[in-house]
Specification:
The structure holds 2 protein chains of 2 kinds.
Chain A lengths: L2 H14 L3 H19 L6 H18 L9 H19 L35 H14 L2 H12 L4 H8 L3 H22 L6
Helix pairs in contact in A: 1-2, 2-3, 2-4, 3-4, 4-7, 5-8, 6-8, 7-8
Chain B lengths: L4 H12 L5 H13 L1 H24 L9 H10 L20 H31 L3 H6 L20 H7 L1 H19 L9
Helix pairs in contact in B: 1-2, 1-3, 2-3
The chains are: A mainly alpha, B mainly alpha.
Chain lengths: 196, 194
């Protein structure tokens, strides 16, 4: 077992044994990553903290049911993503009320891929690129947004994403492909100046 | 293995992400060498990734986790708090400190409750003040208020006496009385379901 996983397992055991300090340490190990993940769903600092808090509280309540078939971090990420999406739905801010099922759709052809996209201008501030990128992400259906966030920002491997989302690696691949196509289409629609 | 364009394009993200095994990336590379259209798709995928690369660099400098967060969460978890992230109405207050949430929400709720109580008291006060004694006397007595033995003409005469003599007022009287009776019966002191 990986040392980090061993430490997680030990902290989980101690937490389940009633040691609050062990759970605190577990939270400290993952809080930065969970906050970073949630910031891709909302930029509001108050909401980020609320969702992060709910994530850890939910994780604590469900800790006994954690099967250890995936790593604790993967499991915790899943709790965080679900909590963030629930929150956005409650807030009526989820663009994901669409009931499309991209898995049944064919890969976009060249014609469907629309105009080409320009790379971010080298003179643009990183913050500006980030702002535009997040604005585009916020417009995407949740399944597309989530795979892009997990891959592009959280550096999750395809296997980790498959475990986290409960889908096959093949589905991860096709979903990412469609997600990037949709990202490009939305970017050129919202910001036509970036169409090449 | 010969790939179709559709299959090849589906592999492009994995190829660029370094997630394809050599068995899967080799035929894709061969396909890309031969197929200009798919090569363009791959180039564009790389451009899209550049957007994320820059955005990721910016995300790395995000604000830190609030101090004491882990200790607070652990305390709440062991206290049995189930948590409930309630969406805040104002989504534009991103610049506010996270600490503000802990004190602001209860304060607002309490303020609303106090304001509602004050408004209710004020409304009752105004209602009582706006019904001077003369007007009260002018109102038809409720059935339970009628002494029965007291003749109507023996009541104090005033403007209301003239009003009662007015045919128009007399025409309105039944309605007014009906309303008053309704009002009198409105406050409920029992526990009957409404």
């Amino acid at each position: 077992m990986h040392p980090a996983a061993r430490e997680d397992a030990s902290l989980i055991e101690e937490t389940l044994g009633g040691n609050p300090l062990a759970f605190q340490l577990l939270v400290e190990r993952y809080q930065e990553r969970i906050f970073a993940l949630i910031r891709h769903y909302t930029r509001n600092a108050v909401e980020v903290e609320d969702i992060a808090q709910d994530t850890f509280l939910k994780a604590y309540r469900k800790l006994e049911g954690f099967q250890r078939q995936s790593s604790f971090s993967t499991w915790l990420y899943r709790v965080a993503v679900n909590t963030a999406l629930d929150f956005l739905k409650k807030a009526g801010r989820s663009p994901v009320q669409t009931v499309e099922d991209p898995e049944v759709l064919a890969s976009p052809s060249s014609a469907e891929r629309g105009p080409r996209i320009a790379a971010p201008d080298a003179r643009m501030e990183r913050e500006e690129v980030a702002r535009i990128t997040h604005a585009v992400l916020a417009e995407l259906p949740e399944i597309f947004r989530t795979v892009l966030v997990l891959r592009e920002f959280e550096d999750q491997s395809y296997q980790e994403m498959a475990d986290l989302l409960g889908i096959s690696i093949g589905t991860v691949e096709s979903r990412l492909f469609r997600a990037r196509a949709r990202f490009k289409e939305t970017l050129t629609r919202l910001y036509p100046e970036f169409a090449a | 293995m010969n790939l179709t364009c559709e299959n090849a394009r589906g592999l492009v993200p994995g190829y660029l992400d370094g997630e394809l095994s050599s068995e899967r990336s080799r035929p894709l590379r061969e396909h890309l060498l031969d197929c200009r259209s798919c090569r363009d798709v791959a180039k564009e995928e790389k451009v899209i990734k550049r957007w994320f690369d820059q955005a990721r660099a910016s995300a790395a400098s995000a604000e830190p986790v609030p101090a004491g967060f882990a200790a607070r969460v652990a305390r709440r978890a062991f206290a049995g708090d189930r948590g409930s992230a309630v969406p805040v109405a104002s989504v534009d207050s991103a610049g506010e400190g996270a600490e503000a949430r802990g004190t602001l929400l209860p304060f607002v709720l309490k303020s609303v409750l106090v304001a509602a109580g004050l408004l209710l008291a004020l409304a009752v006060g105004i209602q009582q003040r706006e019904l001077p004694q003369d007007d009260l006397r002018a109102l038809p007595a409720a059935p339970w208020e009628r002494p029965g033995a007291v003749p109507r003409e023996s009541r104090p005469q005033g403007p209301e006496g003239a009003a009662s003599a007015d045919p128009a007022a007399a025409a309105l009287a039944p309605d007014t009385r009906g309303e008053d009776e309704d009002q009198a019966s409105e406050p409920r002191t029992d526990d009957a379901p409404r």
